[in-house]
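seq:
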Amino acid sequence: MSEVAEINKMVYLWIENIWLWLKYFFFFPIFSLFPPPLPYLLARYLSRLDYLYNLTKKRSMKKWMIKLLGHSHFSRKELDLATRRYFEVIYCDQIDIFIYLFGFSKTFKRRLKIEGRENLNEILRNGGGILLSAHFGGGFWVLPFLKDLGVKAHFFSTDIKKEDYPSKVPLYLFDKLGNWVVQRASSRRILYKKGGRKSLMRALKQKEWVVVLFDVPPFIVKENMEVSFLGKNARFPKGIISIAKELNVPILFFFSYLDGEKERRICFEKPVYVKDEEECVKQFAGLIDQRVRERPDHWHLWPFANQFFYQ
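struct:
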């Protein structure tokens, strides 16, 4: 049985890699050449194949959606719809870099809907700070949008190492390409996790902007604290909040939405200057909690919630 299981695993990985090659380096580049909203429409239809056949991911998502949001949040039909919609949101997020490279990127930027622009304008007067977001909805377009305003922001990312992708070369190449496109869209180099606190503080001291994702699994960061999130105990990073307090720089939280299945909407919250670190961590975790409850299909971490939440 073990030999059969190993063969089945190898066949599955082989098929999955073919799918990733086709998705990232055939379908997405071709779809991105069409005028909006066709790239998103085509990406959403392509996601249906992933939704139909990726049974393991669907089971994990549904399990954690029910566990964290409760049966009262979903009927069975609503749970299936939220799960299917999740795949659509992810695919539209992933195709964005190809639209920026090959497609009608100027048209996409003009179609952006911006909420809380007054909050953004307020923080821009500071001349540097932290733009905080979450693995939610896909926020790539905020970078070229800010660049057009004269704001060039570093993106803080985990290190991409080939050895972390032992059986998924196309995924590794896609992530590498994504980081290259991010640097091109923002005109600022990516600050990788290996540079840690020093690289972040250096950029902020120079009155630069840094984009950081706040909802990361606790094993990835050193400094974190316990908060209530989606009704369960979770740990959120505290280090970025400590840096903001130490340097007295503002934090502006923002969310990106796939609005109406074919438009992008970016919402900027009120800027925050950190006085109490623990209260700020709770406040930002609460913002993500609220948005996830409103749009559960937008949160990217559902399949990996077992890593994010601790027992």
